[in-house]
Specification:
- The complex is a heterodimer.
- By secondary structure, chain A is an alpha+beta fold.
- Chain A contains four helices and five strands.
- Chain A has one domain: Histidine kinase-like ATPase, C-terminal domain (Heat Shock Protein 90), CATH 3.30.565.10.
- In chain B, helix 7 runs parallel beside helix 8.
- Classes of the chains: A alpha+beta, B alpha/beta.
């Protein structure tokens, strides 16, 4: 897998999500991603960015354009130093929320992207990596 | 013993002002369109006299000392007003840097001993530099104030509630729906429902770039609140890609009346109010 383009963005306020989403859209358009997949990755990204803001008071996102030769895609890595998630399987369940939201953020995001990976340590922070292939 | 340089600067106040004005007027970036030369001169005079009269041996190396309060105040008001008038940072920077040039020029003319001249120049240079940094900070703050005010204005104007028909309100939402915005939208909408006695509200989300679970939650809340007021809420402007994304996210909007376009939402609203739109029969008129 080759990384074609890499960008690091910091998200600490709700307004930071907007430029991030715009950059993401630019890259998605550039690799020729269809409108539906664009919307999916953008929604997933905004979901994860919001989670980061809500639970960890912000964090960093790495935005990468990746290629396997046959297919191009976008990889996003959300890294925060928040409280971490104690029970990941529970957090991945539909309708589970510790903050009175819809509880669809993590499970919904997983359904929107091609590949989803979450690592978390209580007290240290959480890292979520998602990949959306152009035609995935 | 009073510092030689300070004595010179205080004595040569007028010469400095002339030389400073000369530097400023020579500068290509002079903005006569934003500020007249008379204003510029009186502003410069005020600043210079505040600087030289407050200058003494103790504070020449400390721009933050008590003696310079007046100078800092003037600088702050100058840079804030310049930020608001639309001066560029370079133009504001040149204003204060040309003062440094003027001061150094006078020192050069008056002090003959090279070592002394060097020492004094460094001191004055340092002092003016730290004033410049303050000026920049204030300038940026002035700009940020402008941005904040604009942000407020945008939130204010971006949520208009339109009465499209007797009893039907429409609310086009453009941009991202965050918590603060939803609050404004909800307030405006509920208030307008009371004012107009409307029974149907159409929320158009064609201009919302992405609907994630938080946006959906905000929409659901708005719809529930509208229903509590006894009005029905229709969400329109759901684009195909948004529909697919919402389904994948697992958001249940089935309890909410949704339409793909504002036109079809309006049609539904007419049906609900038992209104009918018919084409005029032209032949009958003749």
């Amino acid at each position: 897998m080759v990384v074609l383009n890499k960008e690091l963005m910091t998200i600490v306020r709700e307004v930071d999500v907007i430029p991030f989403r715009n950059r993401l859209k630019e890259h998605a358009v550039k690799i020729g991603m269809g409108l539906v997949n664009q919307t999916k990755i953008i929604t997933a990204a905004s979901e994860l960015a919001r989670n980061m803001l809500k639970y960890a008071k912000g964090g960093k996102v790495t935005l990468e354009v990746i290629s396997t030769g046959r297919e191009n895609g976008i990889r996003l890595t959300f890294k925060d130093q928040g409280p971490g998630i104690a029970n990941i399987p529970m957090a991945m369940k539909d309708g589970y929320s510790t903050a009175k939201s819809l509880g669809l953020g993590l499970p919904g995001t997983k359904r929107l992207v091609s590949e989803f990976n979450i690592e978390s340590e209580v007290g240290k922070g959480t890292t979520v990596t998602v990949i959306k292939w152009k035609n995935g | 013993m009073k510092n030689e340089a300070i004595r010179i600067l205080q004595k040569k106040n007028k010469a400095i002002l002339e030389s400073w004005m000369k530097f400023q007027l020579l500068d290509e970036g002079l903005r006569e369109d934003l500020m007249s030369n008379d204003d510029l001169r009186s502003q410069s005079e005020e600043l210079l006299s505040a600087l030289t009269s407050n200058l003494n041996d103790n504070n020449i190396e400390d721009a933050k000392s008590m003696g310079f309060e007046q100078v800092n105040d003037i600088l702050a008001s100058v840079s804030i007003s310049r930020a608001k008038q639309g001066f560029s940072p370079r133009e504001t920077g040149n204003y204060i840097f040309s003062l440094k040039n003027a001061l150094l020029e006078i020192l050069q003319q008056e002090i003959k001993d090279p070592q002394e001249l060097y020492m004094q120049s460094i001191k004055i240079g340092k002092l003016i530099d730290s004033f410049s940094i303050d000026t920049f900070e204030t300038f940026l703050r002035g700009r940020e104030d402008v941005i904040l005010r604009q942000t407020d204005e945008i939130t204010e104007i971006s949520t208009p509630v339109i009465q499209v028909w007797d009893g039907i309100l429409a609310l086009p939402i453009i941009g991202t729906l965050d918590s603060a915005r939803t609050q404004v939208v909800m307030e405006n909408l509920l208030q307008k429902i009371v004012e107009t006695g409307s029974s149907i509200a159409i929320l158009d989300i064609s201009g919302v770039p992405a609907v994630d679970s938080l946006v959906a939650q905000h929409l659901i809340k708005t719809v529930s609140a509208t229903r509590l007021m006894g009005a029905e809420c229709i969400i329109s402007g759901i684009r195909p890609e948004i529909a697919q994304t919402v389904v994948h996210l697992g958001i249940d909007l089935s309890n909410i009346l949704t339409k793909s376009t504002l036109a079809s939402a309006l049609k539904t609203a007419f049906t609900m109010l038992q209104l009918q739109v018919t084409r005029k029969n032209v032949t009958n008129l003749n």
